[in-house]
Amino acid sequence: MSKYNDTIYALSTPPGKSAIAIIRVSGTGAIKAIKKLSSIKKLKIGAANLIFIKYKTIMFFRHYLLTNDNPALNEACKKGEVLPVYIHDNHNNKEKKIGSASKWWLHQSLNSLNKSLDGKLITVAGNPLEILPQIISKSEVQQVNWNRNYEPWQINRDKILKSKKKTYFAV
User: Fold this and answer.
1) Is the pLDDT of residue 29 over 50?
2) Ramachandran region, residue 107 (left: φ > 0; alpha: ψ -120 to 50; beta: rest)
3) If we measure between CA atoms, which residue out of 48, 114, 57, 111 comes closest to residue 80?
4) Rounded CA gap, 153 and 156, in Å?
5) CA–CA dist 81, 84 (Å, integer)
6) Residue 54 to residue 81: CA distance in whole angstroms
7) 35-39, 128-132, 137-141: the lowest-pLDDT one
C-alpha cells in the first residue's frame, strides 16, 4: 500500500483552444471528486471511466455587442459551451425608445455579432425576466453571463435577474 494518499488532478490536454479537455484524476479521493463534478453516481474503482461533463453558459448580450475583449464572454468560454442570446428589452425600458439611426446601428451590430458567432446568436424581443427562464429550462444551462449596464432601469432589471438565480438554477 502506498504511503501517498493525495488526490491528483492533471490537465492532459495541451494548452490552447480546444473543443474538449481531458482531466486525469487519480488518488484515494478520485471517485468522490468525479461524482461531485458529474451527474454519474455509479463508478467502478479500478476501471477506466469516460465522463462527459456538459457545462453550458448563456452569454446574454445587451449593449456590448463585441466578441473581442468581452469579459463576460471570455468567462463563459472558459466554462464550456456557450449559448449566445440577445434579447431586445422592449418591456423594462418604457421611457427610453430608440430612434431610427439607433435601430439601424443595432441591426448592423447584431448582424456582425451573429456572423462572428457562426450564425448561432439567438435574437428575440421582449422581457428578459420572462424569456431567459424559458431558454434556461429548455437548454440545460448552468450559468448566465452578461456585461454590466449602468442605466437605472437596466440596473433594476439585473437585480431582479440576480435575485431569481436560485429559481433558475439548481444551486
Assistant:
1) yes
2) alpha
3) 57
4) 5
5) 10
6) 8
7) 35-39
